[in-house]
Design a protein that fits this description.
Elements: H1 25-45, H2 52-64, E1 67-68, H3 69-76, H4 80-92, E2 96-101, E3 104-112, H5 114-134, H6 142-154
Helix pairs in contact: 1-5, 3-4
Length: about 160
């Protein structure tokens, strides 16, 4: 079994600290950046009474219109039970509704309501100063550069990932 394990050429470490040459360093750094951004965005959403998981569904509904629950689960990285709870929460708050899908008695599409759209817009207003705080340590043009790099990383030209 040990014959299948490649020999180590560097010291065993994996951090998200500057200078770490581990093949895991980039993923760990992206995870830390995500946690930081999620914490800040959670702060923006808290006064509106929703969480990131709710906002992720609202984003999908704004961008794609009425959407099947199973597609919302896929798009948000949720499971069937999790997406049902989120949609239940959104319905209770009047932010989304389930509607029958013509031709399929069992299927339901989720649609954002006018109140959901208002909250979506309010979330953007609330997040603006906090988003600026996220990039406060960056120099002129670096926030745009970071966005460009992450966009190309997340959406490779070859359509991977």
């Amino acid at each position: 079994m040990t014959a299948d394990v490649p020999r180590r050429t560097t010291a065993s470490s994996a951090t998200d600290r500057p200078g770490d040459a581990s093949p895991f360093a980039l993923g760990l750094l992206l995870r830390r950046a995500h946690w930081r951004a999620a914490t800040v965005m959670t702060e923006a959403l808290r006064p509106l009474g929703i969480e990131l998981r709710h906002f992720a569904v609202l984003i999908e509904l704004v961008n794609h219109g009425p959407t099947m629950q199973r597609d919302l689960a896929t798009a948000t990285g949720s499971d069937k039970a999790g997406i049902m709870r989120v949609v239940d929460d959104l319905e209770r708050r009047g932010l989304a509704v389930r509607k029958a899908v013509p031709g399929d008695r069992r299927a339901r599409a989720v649609e954002i309501t006018p109140q959901g759209r208002e909250l979506f817009d309010a979330a953007h207003v609330a997040a603006e100063p906090l988003a600026e705080r996220l990039v406060a340590e960056l120099g002129p043009g670096e926030a745009e550069q970071l966005t460009d790099l992450l966009t190309r990383f997340a959406h490779p030209a070859g359509g991977e990932a």
